């Protein structure tokens, strides 16, 4: 399978345009709204927060993915989450979609919405509507427009997050056509996202059956966005949407064949890259943390074990302090809810050139503290656990727990 | 039921003596070992960490509770956890018990052990043995000896934790005798304990059947120690032990009668008080957090909901920052794994005189920010959730997330 990384994001695929503006939702002097628009109707797939409390735009988008099953545009605002806003919040969704419908001349029920920010307040609808009109007039298919949109949806993010790939699929006449898939995201997490919410929008010019695309999204998310955690808090707004407009000209993917496998691989590549970028940009983070579990008895257990370590406050604080107090990694595996024999497993710090074993035969091992310090001083700190039980593996990503996380979240509203 | 609070701790009940010493296990210039000893043989009950990785003293004590079912003494050290130490760690347990057996002239298999501190290193057996001998010669039944023991088992704790109560039970001749139950604890948690480990030792002169006492312990722990959380990390060493020597002279409790109910209530009172003290003394804490859930459909769901809020990093950081970003409480309820209708529940900040409603009818409510700030500035910050589904309730306790938590855990070993 050949997936080629290219530069760009949501405007990389044919027929997608983006815009952004400073609508003054909450922040001053910065862009805070983004719009995506496709020249042709799109199949749409998506997954959403598992939180019982769902923000209004999540309810809105779920209906489109499950019932309308088609979309033309996405409107996103940062600063206010439109969550815990009751029926008024749903009305704000309808008004926003109506404004985009008029400005873009598309059906309102094909306008997807996203919001991220503080829970509780309603949206300033006059500014939202003005923003929608402003953006509709400045849509562009340039890479710069995609990058600007990815910046507009940031909240406490420190860097914007984009990724795009191409791959080849056969056209109806058998000739090869290039298909592009690109995306942007903000925030940190899906199962365990930061309250500043994970939003991810992926666009592709691939022609693919909607149900198959939904299947691919649900499959891919398990080993990408669902394997990252910043702080264990699952937001009310988490949203991942994939829009496919079919303009690449490939023969439609309608079965789980080689073409589907290639599409899934491309989607996996982009989702994985965006997920890792989010984990490494967790609020206040100074390190990306990676936990790889190999030779577990089941895939699900491998995921649970990897996520448990990534979610441990004590491991996270240890990585921040560059303190090789590695017994904490063992402890976090122990409360993952997975049964295993502590005398059998082996634990390593992973380096560029060599791995450092710090636990084996039921005992914490003596190790070279200087080497460990060097490994813990890398931007990416990687742990490996060999369960020695089977052949399943999984990797989870997160970040360290820092003073800045406490600072950011101790005073988020002001 | 009449339970009377009294001063004191592990030496409050008749026939229990305590001692401590500075054995130099890891810390310098502070006491770091404690010993408890009963003048008469004790029935013993206990619960232990659910972590798959269990420290050697946990394995040792479990065997005594489940098989020996009798004990005479407890030896505890702070500084080193004797966890992830393999067969060598078990040998260290046997040697420690043997030293106490000789020094106290009691069976080695009736010596309970506890360790708390860093995972990995082995115990310095010469210093442990010297400490045991030193303590055996200075055992005392004074309140001061109990308090000194409670200080000796502290690690990152900032205050020692003791509690004691008395109640009346009938003697064999029908006359009333006073029964005493007292305890000491350190650390923060049981389901979600701080890595510095929860250890709790309770002594009583009550005469009670061992199986019934074990039942009472397992019952009481669900709404006390299992309802506190500091950081979501379940230690390898968590231990709660109850020793009953029968010296009060009450007619033995052998059925689930009024006497049992009174014993259970006394145990609950002491466990609850010690649990709240631990939650409020979580690493780096500046606030005790309490989350009370009322009118839930089931007791188990009430517990899950209360624990989810107490465990939320974002709620914890918000309490530290005294920022009434109360949507985070709603969000944490939403991912508790309990189904409910967000439009029905109501959320309050609880004050001495009045409660402040901040969520109702599906919407975050406007509230008096000054009143909220005053409530968030109290040492104890209390939230209340009315689920409006049934009649079950539960309360959980925790603490805020602070810079000092990160500092303490970023550099714990040094």
Model description:
Two copies of one chain form a homodimer. Chain A is α+β, with helices and mostly antiparallel strands and 414 residues long. Chain A has two domains: 4-277, L-amino peptidase D-ALA esterase/amidase (4-Layer Sandwich); 288-410, Ubiquitin-like (UB roll) (Roll). Chain A is built from eleven helices and 16 strands. In chain A, the strands form two sheets. In chain A, strands 1, 2, 3, 4, 5, 6, 7, 8 and 10 form a nine-stranded mixed β-sheet that branches. The first copy, chain A, has a seven-stranded mixed β-sheet with strand order 9-16-11-15-12-13-14, with helices on both faces. In chain A, strand 13 and strand 14 form a beta hairpin.
For the record, the count of structural domains of chain A works out to 2
Greatest contact between two chains: A-B, 66 and 65 residues
Per CATH, what is the topology of the largest domain in chain A?
L-amino peptidase D-ALA esterase/amidase
Helix fraction of chain A?
25-40%
CATH architecture of the largest domain in chain A: 4-Layer Sandwich
| Structural class label of chain A | alpha+beta
The radius of gyration over CA of chain A amounts to: 22 Å
Instruction: Give the overall silhouette of chain A.
Output: globular
Strand content of chain A: 25-35%
Uncertain ranges of chain A: none
Oligomer: homodimer
Q: Overall mean pLDDT score of chain A? A: 92
How many strand units of chain A? 16
Cα separation of the termini of chain A: 49 Å
């Amino acid at each position: 399978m050949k997936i080629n990384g290219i530069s760009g994001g949501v405007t990389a695929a044919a027929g997608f345009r983006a815009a952004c503006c400073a609508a003054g939702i909450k922040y001053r002097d910065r862009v805070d709204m983004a719009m995506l628009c496709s020249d042709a109707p799109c199949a749409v797939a998506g997954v959403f927060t598992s939180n019982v409390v769902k923000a209004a735009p999540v309810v809105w988008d779920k209906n489109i993915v499950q019932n309308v099953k088609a979309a033309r545009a996405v409107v996103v605002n940062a600063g206010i989450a439109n969550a815990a806003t009751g029926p008024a919040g749903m009305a704000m969704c309808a008004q926003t979609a109506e404004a985009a419908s008029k400005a873009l001349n598309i059906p309102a029920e094909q306008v997807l919405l996203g919001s991220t920010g503080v829970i509780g307040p309603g949206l300033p609808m006059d500014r939202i509507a003005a923003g929608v009109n402003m953006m509709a007039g400045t849509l562009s298919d340039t890479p710069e427009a995609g990058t600007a949109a990815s910046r507009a949806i940031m909240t406490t993010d420190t860097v914007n997050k984009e990724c795009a790939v191409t791959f080849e699929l056969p056209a109806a006449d058998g000739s090869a056509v290039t298909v592009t898939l690109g995306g942007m995201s903000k925030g940190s997490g899906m199962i365990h996202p930061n309250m500043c919410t994970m939003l991810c929008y992926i666009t592709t010019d691939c022609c693919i059956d909607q149900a198959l695309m939904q299947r691919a999204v649900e499959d891919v998310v398990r080993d990408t966005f669902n394997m990252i955690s910043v702080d264990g808090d699952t937001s009310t707004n988490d949203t991942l949407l994939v829009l496919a407009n079919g303009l690449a000209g490939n023969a439609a993917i309608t079965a789980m064949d080689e073409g589907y496998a290639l599409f899934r691989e491309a989607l996996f590549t982009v989702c994985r890259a965006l997920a890792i970028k989010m984990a490494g940009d967790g609020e206040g983070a100074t390190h990306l943390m990676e936990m790889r579990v190999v030779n577990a008895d089941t895939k699900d257990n491998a995921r649970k074990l990897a996520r448990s370590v990534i979610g441990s406050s004590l491991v996270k604080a240890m990585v921040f302090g560059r303190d090789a107090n590695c017994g904490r990694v063992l402890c976090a595996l122990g409360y993952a809810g997975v049964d295993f024999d502590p005398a059998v497993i082996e634990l390593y710090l992973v380096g560029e050139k060599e791995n450092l074993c710090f636990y084996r035969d039921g005992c914490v091992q003596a190790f070279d503290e200087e080497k460990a310090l060097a490994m813990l001083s890398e931007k990416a700190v990687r742990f490996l656990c060999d369960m020695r039980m089977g052949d399943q593996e999984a990797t989870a990503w997160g970040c360290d727990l820092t003073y800045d996380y406490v600072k950011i979240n101790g005073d988020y509203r002001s």
